[in-house]
Amino acid sequence: MVMPRQTILLVEDEGSIAETVLYALGTEGFATLWKTTGREALAAVAAEPVALVVLDVGLPDMSGFDVCRELRRQGAVPVIFLTARSEEVDRIVGLELGADDYLAKPFSPRELTARVRAVLRRTGGGGPPPAAAAAGWEHDEARCRISYRGRPLDLTRNEYRLLAALLAQPGRVYSRDQLMTAAWADPGAALDRTVDAHVKSVRAKLRAIAPAADPIVTHRGLGYSLREEP
Q: Which domains does the chain have, with CATH numbers?
């Protein structure tokens, strides 16, 4: 039985920030919605269930604080504030309104996804199902350990993060930029050929276990995916 992915609503009016956050959440196995105004966000929450809201304070139509107040009137959906404001008074206001966490810009996409998971665990939301749904794979996220065909892989930190991103959604084609965002703490410092080199290294470790297998698929001009196996 395939468990439905939990949906994270991102309310952010800056497109470049939103794209980075959506990529990071997607590679962690979450479904995402993106809205750019407070009113659109409130309408989205009223229309369909979401597991958590990542909410910018400085929205074009209304304050994120006001959006949070209205969300609290409607229910108890968890909220993480994402904002350029880092002053203590803003953090206090946000938390007193019932926000579950507060992250100031600039931020690491990986830190945000870690906070999303932590809030969901704390509030009883859990998280998306383990990424090891693909046949032949086991992914122990707590220990950052991936096994293939019953044998643990000896992976570097970036190799682990890259493979974990592919495992999150077998069959999905990830661009090199998406994989850099998922696997590198500073994606801007990595190059396309860096991703290619890490994929080559991971493939070599997989061939050492199963020489005839080739579970990572290259999509020329597009990126990489994990082969979907029955």
A: 7-122 (3.40.50.2300), 137-226 (1.10.10.10)
Q: How far apart are CA 108 and CA 21, in angstroms?
A: 9
CB 64 within 8 A of CB 57: yes
CA distance 194 to 183: 11
How many other C-beta atoms can be found within 10 angstroms of the C-beta atom of residue 197?
12
Unique residue bearing structure tokens 């690491």? 108
Q: Which of 135, 118, 136, 134 is nearest to 126 (CA)?
A: 118
What tens digit of pLDDT does each residue of 180-217 get?
A: 777 776 555 556 688 899 999 999 999 999 998 889 99
* Those residues with Cβ within 8 angstroms of residue 206's Cβ, 6 or more apart along the chain or in another chain: 148, 153, 213, 214, 215, 216
Tokens of 161: 């993060």
Give the tokens for residue 230. 């029955």
| Rounded Cα–Cα distance for residues 94 and 92 (Å) | 5
pTM over 0.90: no
| Contact in structure between 18 and 34 (CB atoms under 8 Å) | yes
CA proximity to 53, closest of 41, 40, 69, 66: 41
